[in-house]
Design a protein that fits this description.
Cyt_c_oxidase_su4_prok, 3 helices, about 85% helix, membrane, single chain, mainly alpha
């Protein structure tokens, strides 16, 4: 009898956790759609000078990548430390490479 009650509690907890996770994923998806529409609007509407549009679009892209990592790839969960290290290491290597090539080109 206790085993059955315990399993029901675990099922209830898991359902609640899954529902909360789905809510966060839907909110994140909605925000990513809004960011994409804002980026298209900035380009099509020519509301700002190009000097401000490009950094704004890059910032929106960085935020969307963070959303992808943390909510859709579940990087916020425990047990994903090694993939996180590899991804962040790759990003860091890309930043260093682009910076070094930019410096060499303009020097």
């Amino acid at each position: 009898m206790t085993e059955n009650t315990s399993s029901k509690k675990v099922d209830t907890f898991q359902k609640r956790k899954n529902k909360e996770e789905m809510k966060y994923q839907l909110i994140t998806f909605g925000l990513m759609i809004i960011f994409t529409l804002v980026a298209f609007g900035l380009v099509v509407g020519e509301l700002m000078p190009k000097m401000f549009v490009i950094p704004t679009i890059l910032l929106l892209a960085i935020v969307q990548v963070a959303f992808q990592f943390y909510y859709f790839m579940h990087m916020k969960h425990s047990g994903h430390e090694m993939p996180s290290v590899m991804i962040y290491g790759g990003i860091w290597a890309a930043i260093l490479t682009v910076t070094a090539l930019s410096v060499l080109t303009w020097w």
